[in-house]
Amino acid sequence: MAPTARFLTLADVAEVLNTSSAQVYALVRRGDLPAIKIGGRGQWRVEATELEKYIERMYDETKTFVSAHPFVESESGRGDEA
After folding, report:
1. Calpha distance 52→32 (Å, rounded)
2. Which range of residues forms the domain containing residue 39?
3. Total number of domains in the chain
4. N or C: less crowded end of the chain, CB within 10 Å?
5. Is 36 helix (H, G, I), strand (E, B) or coil?
6. Quick check: is 77 in a domain?
């Protein structure tokens, strides 16, 4: 069994989150997802533990959002699509 990598590329993070590398880059540049910049070419790396913390924060934020905005069936029966 191979050891788990400590640091992930933005592409690795994008794969985990099932999103684009551009979206991950935006998360890093906004400071939402802590990362380090390494090497002369400034390649970004995200520590695996920081990614897990980010995911947990997003679960907490989503739980808060859902509590504040409960799902309500609309008259059409399709639900609230906001």
Report:
1. 13
2. 7-68
3. 1
4. N
5. strand
6. no
CATH (domain of 34)? 1.10.1660.10
**pTM to 2 decimals?**
0.79
Q: How far is CA 15 from CA 28, 47, 76, in A?
A: 15, 15, 36
Q: What is the pLDDT along the chain (82 residues), one digit of tens a residue?
A: 666 889 999 999 999 999 999 999 999 999 999 999 999 888 999 999 999 999 999 999 999 999 999 888 876 666 555 5
Residue appearing with tokens 């390494």? 38
- The 10 Å CB-count burial string (b at 16+, else e) for 21-60 is eeebbebbeeeebebeeeeeeeebbbeeebbeebeeeeee
**Domain-embedded: residue 30:** yes
